[in-house]
């Protein structure tokens, strides 16, 4: 892995080529964002912008040649490229993964607010966009088939801002891990185990969650999306908390394995439990309390 990372960072042309190539292989497309993030963390925002621009142009040209559309490149820039670069710029400036989580959650919350203020029914808007995209790609879609598909999509599109936030955070973590592997072995783990969002963020999140639960209309909507976003953000802190406590107490790695297994096997319950743990940690700082007892 070290040899691959050194190859990627040998020059901006190497980074651009690897990023663009990964975008052409959907299972590995997340690597494109991580390469942009790595360039930003190691060399600065200007270098990250150069790699983003170069890989996006190459990817757009390839998509135009293969499918006659540059839409996938535009989606990559908006959904992956720009968020990865911006969050890695925050991490480079603050050296705090907690600050990155706060920034990502705040940006996603603002996006949700803008979307619901500017579009009367965001779910229907997303469905219209998707239907138009299918029409251009396949010459149209049978109405009954799209009606069946739309029932599934209604549950999916409301989680798009949350999905983008979580994906962006994971890409930043991957970029930071690669950066640490090159320049500061073990640094990523120390940063992640110390991740905290702070009481100010927790207070705002708590008020927003109460409003989403009791003041917002029931069902899918802005309140539902904001609540999902807060749960996801606090769950990420909960994961860092478990890692931190296991390391502090020199606990068995089986605890870490059990946590991730629960996320796979009983996802809703595990996410909610980690979210509660992460939210309470913002106020009580369990890692500092346990450190004082040692």
Report on the architecture of this protein.
This protein is mainly alpha-helical and 294 residues long. The chain folds into two domains: 1-181, Arp2/3 complex 21 kDa subunit ARPC3 (Orthogonal Bundle), CATH 1.10.1760; 196-294, no CATH class. 84% of the residues lie in helices and 0% in strands. The radius of gyration is 20 Å and the shape is globular.
Structure keywords:
single chain; Arp2/3 complex 21 kDa subunit ARPC3; mainly alpha; 2 domains; 294 residues; 15 helices; 0% strand
Describe the secondary structure blueprint for this structure.
Blueprint: H1 2-8, H2 12-23, H3 30-43, H4 45-67, H5 71-94, H6 97-118, H7 122-138, H8 143-157, H9 160-183, H10 187-193, H11 199-214, H12 222-248, H13 254-265, H14 267-284, H15 286-293
How do the SSEs run, as a string of H and E?
A: HHHHHHHHHHHHHHH
Mean pLDDT: 85
- Overall number of strands: 0
Structural class, judged by helices and strands?
Answer: mainly alpha
The level of helicity is over 70%
Q: Extract low-pLDDT stretches.
A: none
Proportion of residues in β-strands = under 5%
State the helix count.
15
User: What does the radius of gyration come to?
Assistant: 20 Å
Shape: globular
CATH class of the largest domain: Mainly Alpha
Main pleated sheet: none
CATH architecture of the largest domain: Orthogonal Bundle
CATH domain fold name of the largest domain: Arp2/3 complex 21 kDa subunit ARPC3
Total domains: 2
- N/C terminus separation: 36 Å
Short description:
With 294 residues, the chain is mainly α.
């Amino acid at each position: 892995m070290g040899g691959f990372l050194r190859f990627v960072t040998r020059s901006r042309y190497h980074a651009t080529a690897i990023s663009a190539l990964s975008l052409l292989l959907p299972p590995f497309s997340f690597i494109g964002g991580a390469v942009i993030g790595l360039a930003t963390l190691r060399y600065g925002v200007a270098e990250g912008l150069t790699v983003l621009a170069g890989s996006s142009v190459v990817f757009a040209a390839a998509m135009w040649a293969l499918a006659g559309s540059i839409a996938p490149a535009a989606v990559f820039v908006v959904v992956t490229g720009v968020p990865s670069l911006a969050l890695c710029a925050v991490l480079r400036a603050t050296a705090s993964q907690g600050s990155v989580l706060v920034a990502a959650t705040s940006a996603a919350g603002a996006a949700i607010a803008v979307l619901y203020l500017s579009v009367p029914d965001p779910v229907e808007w997303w469905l219209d966009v998707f239907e138009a995209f299918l029409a251009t790609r396949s010459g149209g879609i049978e109405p009954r088939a799209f009606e069946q598909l739309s029932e599934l999509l209604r549950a999916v599109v409301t989680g798009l801002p949350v999905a983008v936030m979580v994906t962006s955070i994971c890409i930043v973590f991957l970029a930071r891990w690669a950066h640490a592997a090159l320049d500061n072995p073990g640094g990523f783990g120390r940063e992640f185990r110390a991740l905290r969002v702070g009481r100010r963020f927790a207070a705002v999140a708590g008020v927003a969650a109460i409003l989403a639960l009791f003041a917002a209309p029931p069902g899918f909507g802005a309140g539902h999306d904001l609540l999902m976003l807060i749960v996801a953000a606090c769950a990420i802190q909960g994961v860092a908390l478990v890692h931190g406590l296991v390391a502090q107490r020199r606990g068995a790695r089986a605890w870490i394995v059990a946590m991730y297994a629960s996320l796979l096997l009983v996802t809703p319950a595990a996410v909610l439990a980690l979210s509660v743990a992460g939210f309470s940690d913002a106020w009580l700082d369990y890692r500092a309390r346990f450190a004082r007892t040692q």
